[in-house]
Description:
Elements: E1 2-5, E2 9-14, E3 19-25, H1 27-35, E4 41-48, H2 53-60, E5 68-72, E6 77-82, E7 89-95, E8 115-118, H3 123-130, E9 138-142, H4 145-150, H5 152-161, E10 164-168, H6 169-176, H7 181-190, E11 195-199, E12 205-209, E13 212-216, H8 230-245, H9 250-267, H10 274-277, H11 281-295
Parallel strand pairs: 1-4, 1-8, 2-6, 4-5, 8-9, 9-10, 10-11
Antiparallel strand pairs: 2-3, 6-7, 11-12, 12-13
Helix pairs in contact: 1-8, 3-5, 6-7, 8-9, 9-11
Amino acid sequence: MLTVFGSAALDTIRTPKKTLKGVLGGAAVFAAISASNFTKTGMIAAVGRDFPKRYHNILSKRLDLQGMTVAGNKTFCYDGIYDKTLSTRKTLKTVLNVLEKFKPKVPEEYKKSKFIYLANNDPKQNTTLLKEFDNVKFSMCDTIDFWISTKQKAVIKMIGSVDAVVINDEEAKILTKEHNLVKCAKKMMDWGARYVIIKKGEHGSLMFFEDVVFPSPGFSLDDVLDPTGAGDSFAGAMIGYLAKKNSTKMSEIKKAIVYGNVVGSFAVEGYGLDGLLRLKQSDISKRVRLYERMVRF
């Protein structure tokens, strides 16, 4: 079993073609739904009493929700707007609501999880929560500029407590104060992470481990509708694949990154969670085969 900890949200997403208000989102939601394509996934998150029942039903069909609790009146809210190219997003508003005083608890069944993903969340909470699991084989975390700017020391400590960190290129530079991604990765490995996966949006990702560098290009798409949650979908699929294989061999980690890129490509083809919710196993397998042909030479 895989456990995912992070935020469930009611998002407002503004793209050049469409604005969505109060849609289901959050780092844990995108990651957990992506992971559920590969393995049984439990999600630890908090929502408010305003969380729509239809969203609960969507999640309950795909996830184990023993770890999801109603912790107050209002669910965490995010409001962001993309530029015309969909390559840059500006945060208009972040309202923590239930997350402000949320104290997560790990259900007994989840404590047996060997694979743990700590999504964009308070780094202090992430580090503390990780200690509650009995026999962790592989743990991975993500972070964003909000936590880097407000709790940088805690972010660094969190990175030192996990096996792998997934982070986008700009945030890696901000966190490490380096401009070169190789130097960014080396610094994070010096902090304690064994694997560093740097996401580069539509350009794919770079994975670093000791002296190994594994570049993985993004899957080429004709049209991108909404990049929201793409990075979380990438990470969820990656660790979901590893949990399915119950392996941390380098060959499997490389395959997991490919699956992450492929599932992330489906996420951006719909608004909000639409691209993931209509996804089938056959779709993933077909696109992985296309991806293999794309990168072979």
